[in-house]
Structure formats: structure tokens, C-alpha cells
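Problem 12. The chain below contains 308 residues. Write out its predicted structure in C-alpha cell notation.
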Amino acid sequence: MILCCGEALIDFVPLSGKRVYQPCPGGSVFNIAVGLGRLDIAVNFFCKMSTDFFGDMLLDHLVENNVDTSMCLRVPNPTTLAFVSLDTSDGAEPQFSVYANDSADRSLTISDLPSCIPDEVKVMHFGSISMVLEPGATALEALMAREHGNRVISLDPNVRPNLIPDLEVYRQRFENWLSSVDLLKLSEADREWIYPKLGLDECLKCWFDRGVSLVIQTRGREGAEAFTSNGENAFMETPNVKVADTVGAGDTFIAAALAYLTEEDLLDKDHLSKLDGHQLSGVLSFASRAAAINCTRVGADPPFRHEI
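Solution.
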């Protein structure tokens, strides 16, 4: 089982051609849990979730998509809201304005952490705004550090620059996380924002020196690539589809990558650093197809198994 730990919020996505917004269940880690559930992978979700009607919407969406919600904590705090701008005609990624003061998912504290993680959980995934907004960020950081010796840790920073006031502080924190991380997935835009003065090769050396086994970098329409600490690598072109928007594409990609590795019995500490080029190509191919399907639909809407 994969345990996804992070935010659950409502994305307000603009309807085509109108200044009208549709509320959609979302949040990067939430989307990843849904993506895994739709691919028939055993998945649980750990988060504080509001008892308001948006919280009910989020919980119902998880259940409807085969996600175990037994580790969700219900609290009266309001649900985090995020408004999405899809004005990406210049090729830029979607922009988000997040409203999370005293919100449910953000309010997670160390005292809320489970005293033990169920034995069936072999992988834990972290990332995005849940690793930035306090006090939840510190709590999840502590959980990641506590569990990294017991199971595989996956991280997708999915950077939201408008929520990060100090790049230097964030970079240091990011590098501290890496000592607990086995699989790092990030976009080229994430990497260039975190390390504006370093090239990819320099970043890979830094990350592998800190103990990461597998790095996957997505490059939007330019494809995706994977690198292991043992020196193997692979590249996959992005499938050619008619794009509705790219919201949730990265979340779908990492969900599908985790699903593929799980089904091939490769998602463990022994295998990740030893993947060969053929295996890496298989991961990238499956994940790229899933992300492409998501991009043909409005909002984060990862595919079901039969669609890939």
C-alpha cells in the first residue's frame, strides 16, 4: 500500500471563456492518491480534512476513487481554497492563488501524527504546498524523517513560488528532506526555480550525494527523463494530444510512475537505484501516457486503468 501524506483542497477552475469558477476536489497529494486509486493501486490518504461541505466533497471523492480514508482526521477548520489561472498561452504552467489561513489540512501538528504506520504501507509520498505551509509542513517533515528507514519515501516538491517568501530558506529545507527521500520527482520548472544557477548534472550529483536513488524530471511538452544513482538514464517524448489544460498533469505522472513501479515489484529500496534503461523507459512511457490523458480534460482528472 502507498500512503499519500499532504494537502486536500478545493481548486476553483475557470469555465472556458467565462469569469465563472467551478469547484473541484484537488491538492497535489490528494490528486496523486486519486490517480493511484483509479489505477487500482492500494492507497491510503493521511490529512486533516474539514467537516464543512467542501470537506465532505473531498472525502466522497476519495472514497469514489478507491482511496482508503481511514487515516483522514476530520476537524471543524475550513477547507483550503485555491483559484487556478489557466492563461498559459505562452507555455507557462498554471498559476494558483491559495487561501489557507487556519485551514484544516494546514493545521496538522506533530501531535496529530499516527504513533505507528500500518505494516502494509510500503511507500509514503509527500510534497507540494503541504511541505511549505506551517504548522503542517513541520509535522510532515518530522513524519518523513521518522519513517524513511522503514519504507520507501517519494517526494514531488511541486513548487508554488507565490507561497515561498525566501528561496534560500526553502532550498536548505528541500535539501534536508532529500536525506530521507528515495524517489524524487520534479518538473524542470521546479528545478530551475530552486537552483537557478545550477545545471541538471550538478543538481543530480547534489541529490544523489544526499541519498536519493531515483530522480524523474518532467519537461512538459518536451518529454520526461529519469536518472538513477547508479548512472542509468532514459528519456521519453511527450505523447501528442489535444490539450485542454495541464492542471494535475504532474500529479498524474507521479501517480502513474508509482503505480508502474508497484506492479513491476520495483518500488523498494533495493531496486530503485538498480533500474536499467529498459525499466526506466517503461516507467516514463506509462506515466507519460497517463499524464497526456489527464491533459485532454479540464482540471485534475487522472485516467482509470482501462484508459491507458
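Discussion. The CA atoms of residues 148 and 180 lie 5 Å apart. Students who got a different answer should revisit the alignment rule from Section 12.3.
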